[in-house]
Amino acid sequence: MRRVTTAGAIYERLYADIVSLRMPPGLLLQEKRIAEDFGVSRTPVREALLRLSEGGLVDIYPQSGTVVSRVPVASIPEAVVVRKALEGTTVETAAETASAADIAHLDAIISRQRSLAVVGNASNFHEEDEAFHEAIAEIAGYPGIWALLKTVKVQIDRARRLALPALGRMDNVVCEHIVIRDALAAHDAAAARDAMIHHLSAVIPDVDELRSRYPDYFC
Predict the structure, then answer these.
(1) From 57, 76, 121, 142, which residue has the greatest number of CB atoms within 10 Å?
(2) Would you say 166 and 125 are in contact if contact means Cβ atoms under 8 Å apart?
């Protein structure tokens, strides 16, 4: 089993809260409060916050405090390019190796996404979206690529959390996932790549529109 240090556990909790926007951009993070919540000293909290800072999720101001960083718009286009390149390659390989059990696993994820879209649960829908893409990386035998992508696309994910509640967006994602799933089941690598590239182009949020609605969340 993976060993998680105290600082690591704090990091993972804060990371999840920041990416899900439970901790929105601009929120002041108090070391003392976090340490009390976890029942630890401030040392592992500082370690976790430093790691988050290195990942661009918090800004640390000496003598002033630590705040959740705003989403840097300039970083999103490059992250999109990286994601298309890596996931395009991954889904091609997955199309060559996908088994009936693999397709059944994707079907189960898509089924859960349908149910979540019906009730408008954007947060859990996003988690299933992550599971769908991670499953494809595992089918391809490239789990390390997904681990890398999680760090690359973190700012996209924060923006998407604001975009997913838009009317019909979750239904569209489900339809796009079905097209990818069908290409994998047919072992059609070219179609799988085309479907993935189309999907990734569509899931990127309209940052300008979001920026106008949430001006304090972006920089």
Answers:
(1) 57
(2) no
pTM of the predicted structure, to 2 decimals: 0.85
Structure tokens given for 149: 């992508």
Neighbours of 94 (CB within 10 A): 27
Q: Across the beta sheet with 65-68, what order do the strands follow? A: 28-29, 65-68, 58-61
Q: Assess contact for 142 and 88: CB atoms under 8 A.
A: no
Question: What domains does the chain contain, in order, with CATH numbers?
Answer: 6-68 (1.10.10.10), 73-213 (1.20.120.530)
CA gap 95, 24 in Å, rounded = 38
pLDDT exceeds 90 at position 136: yes
How far is it, in rounded angstroms, from Cα 28 to Cα 175? 39
CB-based contacts of 43, cutoff 8 Å, min separation 6: 7
